[in-house]
What we know:
Blueprint: H1 3-25, H2 32-39, H3 47-83
InterPro entries: Aquaporin-like (IPR023271)
Keywords: Membrane, Transmembrane, Transmembrane helix
Subcellular location: Membrane
Amino acid sequence: MPLFVKTRLIPFIISGFLTFSLVYIGIPGLNPVVASSRLMGCPGLDLQWFMITYWLCPVIGWMLAVKLDKIKIVKKKQQKKKEK
């Protein structure tokens, strides 16, 4: 494969597919499993930063979202009790 294709054309095509999936499929199309299958082992991404970016950060975000959602539900219940 020519160097131009490896360094310029293939990343452009992959970026296009990722952009398409983000725009038309949405964020769930880029969950950690899909990101791992598409991007793990790509040049410039070492394993440590890959795991932090695509696994640790989403899991922490998910856990925080669950916690915040529970707080919101509790506040709504308390507000309904005050109204009665």
